[in-house]
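Entry for the shared binder. Reason: the reviewer on the internal report wants the predicted structure included alongside the sequence.
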Amino acid sequence: MPLPRDQAWFAAKTYGWGWGLPLRWQGWVVMIGFLVAICAGAPLAQNHTGLFTAHCIVLSLALFALC
């Protein structure tokens, strides 16, 4: 059963794969938290590129699961 539009955190795209911009405040909190977490791991990029890549992949998978 599909989720009613007034309860969805993110808009479904009409064409293509993925989601659009957040529709509700919860979606904006998730997106801002994701960006903050990516930026928090940015110092890893200088010395540990592989670790930073893993950090980004894990965060992206978590965002994907939540969306």
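Summary line for the report: The helical segments are 25-40, 44-47, 49-66.
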